């Protein structure tokens, strides 16, 4: 196994607050890696550093064997690293199909849309049970449908690594199951995931390995069951 | 189809209405329709409210004026031939301007762009050797026949309107348009999906600026005088924005509709209320009414109503029976 994503000694401070403190972690290709930690432990900041939404104060980030020198969301996305957001964020003025077509890596000046991309959009619509709503404006979708659409859109560019920011937050149990099923299916097809989530049963069922952050540092890593027993982790969560 | 009818009617117009005041009115209507359509590409689709577009209008006007005074290109139809060059030049020159302005978003973007407008105006006042300062530039009027003096300007402006709408139509149906609407909805997420947002925004900005400058060039030749306070006029910006909001932003025909309502209304008010600037009060009244009653503009509101009617008319099963029974 090779590391698809490697973070070495990454740091980020906001004024006097050190959000990420010389944090190192890596995501192996072909895994569903979980990233957990108490509130304020720096999970989302790590996400933002890795995806280029925030400039790091120090450290190295390596994706797919290359050092990312100037992290930029667009460029990283085009290289196969794509994320979702905590709130289901879709383009509410575009239709469901347009939301998907937009996410193809093809540039707009390249005329025409190749059949492959179109077929992929159709496939994803069917997979995610959105085919009936293909021409609905995304603003009219339910929260759950938006969550699925956001997920589906990340797959349009055939990424290598998908970062899911709380995929199960605020979602009913049936939908959590649906999302979980999709993640498993895509994982079986070879996609790698990094998942931030507060829903512990969800993480324990799905993720291996699990990385635990506390105060901007990695305090534990390993299989879910092992991490659960780790005294450092118990300390961090219980504040003992 | 709709475009063929509208443009056919507009092309035939100078033959039907030969009165100078009608042609003058329609010249300004077309000008604002072109300006609004061009502005719509930036302000409508991508939602970046640029208040600096009048600067490009002024640059176009000065470009034509300066080619007269400094390069003596000659009169007649020749100034019309330099317009594409003016448009292209301004489009290219607007890229660094846009690049700076696009480091900001939303309200800050509006403020940054409006400062560009005033910078352009100050430059027009102060680069005296080039612009003639506050004395302006006089352009010798061409020797078109008096009876149909307005007609060449009218057709030139119709051409710019056609170009603007063509650009707007292309943007609306292409992936560039999707990218711009996505930027309006949620720019950060668009970046995260690999949409080349900076490129899309700059392209829209350059195309829009180039088109606006061409309209400015024709205007300068028509008026035959370029003064800083009229060539780089915040009211021109306000006009564009207002028309787009009235007609419906992010639509193809909305800006044109807005111009065809507002320009005649403005002329009428100016005529009624005399040379005072009281018509500006009318302007703000229109803006308030738009914001209150049609926050999305006329066309999108009508479209929504149409869709709702259609849904009510062809409901599945029981509801149809209810409608029939009642």
Structure, described:
The complex is a heterodimer of chains A (240) and B (326). The model of chain A has no long low-confidence stretch (mean pLDDT 87). Helix content of chain A is 35%, strand content 25%. In chain A, strands 6-7-8-3-9-10 form a six-stranded mixed β-sheet, sandwiched between helices. Chain A starts with a strand and ends with a helix. In chain A, helix 3 runs parallel beside helix 5. Chain A contains nine helices and ten strands. Chain A has 240 residues and is of the alpha/beta class. In chain A, a hairpin with a 2-residue loop joins strand 9 and strand 10. Chain A has one domain: P-loop containing nucleotide triphosphate hydrolases (Rossmann fold, 3-Layer(aba) Sandwich). With 326 residues, chain B is mainly alpha-helical. Chain B has a single domain, classed as Orthogonal Bundle (ABC transporter involved in vitamin B12 uptake, BtuC). A two-stranded antiparallel sheet of chain B has the order 1-2. The longest helix of chain B is centred in the middle third of the chain and has 27 residues. Chain B is globular. The interface between A and B is medium-sized, with 30 and 23 residues.
Count of DSSP H/I helices of chain B: 15
**According to CATH, what is the class of chain A?**
Alpha Beta
> Quaternary state, please?
heterodimer
Count of spatially separate domains of chain A: 1
Strand order of the largest sheet of chain A: 6-7-8-3-9-10
Distance between the termini of chain A: 36 Å
Strand line-up across the major sheet of chain B: 1-2
């Amino acid at each position: 196994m090779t590391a698809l994503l490697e973070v070495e000694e990454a740091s980020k401070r906001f004024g006097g607050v050190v959000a990420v403190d010389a944090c190192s972690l890596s995501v192996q290709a072909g895994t569903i890696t979980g990233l957990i930690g108490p509130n304020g432990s720096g999970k989302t900041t790590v996400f933002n550093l890795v995806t280029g939404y925030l400039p790091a104060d120090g450290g190295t980030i390596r994706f797919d064997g290359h050092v990312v020198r100037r992290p930029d969301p667009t460029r990283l996305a085009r290289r196969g690293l794509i994320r979702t957001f905590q709130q289901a964020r879709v383009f509410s003025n575009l239709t469901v199909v347009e939301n998907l077509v937009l996410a193809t890596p093809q540039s707009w000046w390249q005329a025409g849309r190749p059949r492959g991309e179109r077929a992929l959009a159709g496939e994803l619509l069917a997979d995610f049970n959105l085919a009936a709503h293909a021409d609905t404006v995304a603003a009219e979708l339910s929260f759950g449908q938006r969550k699925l659409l956001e997920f589906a859109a990340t797959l349009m560019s055939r990424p290598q690594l998908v970062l899911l920011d709380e995929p199960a937050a605020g979602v009913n149990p049936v939908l959590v199951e649906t999302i979980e099923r999709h993640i498993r299916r895509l994982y079986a097809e070879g996609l790698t995931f990094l998942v931030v989530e507060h829903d512990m049963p969800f993480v324990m069922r799905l993720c291996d390995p699990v990385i635990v952050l506390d105060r901007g540092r990695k305090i534990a890593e390993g299989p879910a069951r092992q991490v659960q027993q780790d005294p450092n982790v118990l300390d961090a969560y219980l504040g003992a | 189809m709709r475009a063929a009818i509208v443009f056919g009617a507009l092309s035939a117009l100078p033959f039907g209405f030969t009165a100078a005041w009608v042609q003058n009115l329609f010249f300004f209507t077309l000008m604002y329709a072109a300006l609004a359509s061009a502005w719509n590409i930036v302000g409508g689709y991508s939602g970046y409210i640029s208040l600096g577009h009048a600067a490009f209008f002024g640059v176009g006007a000065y470009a034509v004026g300066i080619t007269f005074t400094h390069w003596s290109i000659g009169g007649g139809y020749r100034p019309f031939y330099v317009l594409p060059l003016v448009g292209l030049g301004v489009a290219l020159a607007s890229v660094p301007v846009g690049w700076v302005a696009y480091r900001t978003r939303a309200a800050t973007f509006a403020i940054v762009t409006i400062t560009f407008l005033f910078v352009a105006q100050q430059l027009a006042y102060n680069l005296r050797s080039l612009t003639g300062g506050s004395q302006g530039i006089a352009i010798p009027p061409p020797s078109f026949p008096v009876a149909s003096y307005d007609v060449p300007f009218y057709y030139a402006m119709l051409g710019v309107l056609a170009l603007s709408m063509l650009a707007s139509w292309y943007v609306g149906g292409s992936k560039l348009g999707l990218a711009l609407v996505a930027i309006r909805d949620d720019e950060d997420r668009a970046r995260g999906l690999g949409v080349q947002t900076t490129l899309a925004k700059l392209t829209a900005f350059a195309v829009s600026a180039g088109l606006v400058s061409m309209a400015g060039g024709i205007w300068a030749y028509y008026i035959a005088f370029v003064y800083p306070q009229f060539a780089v006029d915040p009211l021109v910006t306000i006009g564009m924005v207002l028309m787009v909001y009235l007609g419906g932003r992010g639509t193809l025909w909305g800006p044109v509709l807005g111009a065809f309502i507002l320009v005649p209304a403005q002329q009428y008010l100016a005529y009624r209320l005399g040379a005072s600037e009281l018509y500006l009060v009318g302007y703000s009244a229109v803006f308030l009414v738009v914001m209150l009653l049609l926050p999305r503009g006329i066309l999108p509101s009508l479209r929504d109503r149409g869709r709702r009617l259609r849904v009510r008319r062809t409901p599945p099963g029981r509801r149809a029976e209810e409608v029939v029974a009642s």
